[in-house]
Amino acid sequence: MKKMKDERLILQTLKNIRIAYIVLMLGVLFILVKQFTVDGINVFATPLFFVMVVSNSVLAVMNMGVSIDYASTGKKSYLDSYRNIIWICAAVGVAFMALYWFLSPERVIWEALLSGVVFFVCFLIPFSIGYRMKKKRSQHIDD
Asked: What share of the chain is helix, strand, coil (3-state, %, to 5)?
């Protein structure tokens, strides 16, 4: 099988793959919603939910490199400083902690604090990876 060299065909193939992926994820989501509503099954414990989370995480990590290249056009941004990234992630963590605490006041403060820390870490990891990728690519271009 020959490799495609026409950029239009490559782009069309990528669009087709994206559409197939969207259809696949909608199908998985439909099955999970059906299991939850009709059968009353806890969908978070099913292997199908795990497959959906892993595949979306892999897609997000793979698209991160493209997003970094697209975003690094030389413009200044709030995400150029790692200190700003930490402040943004901390603000998200505090916001979710406050939401959790105010929306469920019968819960103890430790649960709200734990959820805030989890959201802080979940936002900090991808932003840190993106920052390192952007910094590494900018150093590679400067050399």
From this structure: 85, 0, 15
Amino acid at 13: T
- How far is the C-alpha of 117 from the C-alpha of 101, rounded, in Å? 13
Unique residue bearing structure tokens 């009353």: 40
pLDDT digits (tens, 9 = 90+) for 21-54: 888 888 888 888 888 888 777 777 788 888 877 8
CA–CA distance, 128 with 122 (Å, rounded to integer): 10
Going by the DSSP 8-state scheme, the letter that residue 35 receives in this structure is I
> Cα(112)–Cα(3) distance, rounded to whole angstroms?
53
Instruction: Enter the tokens of residue 127.
Output: 């932003």
pLDDT at residue 80, as a whole number: 72
How many of the other CB atoms lie within 10 Å of CB of 89?
20
The pTM score is 0.56
Angle made by CA atoms 56, 129, 136, in degrees to the nearest 5 = 130
Residue type, 60: A
Query: Residue 73 gets which letter from DSSP?
Result: S
Domain residue extents for the chain: 1-71, 73-143
How many CB atoms are located within 10 Å of the residue 119 CB?
Answer: 20
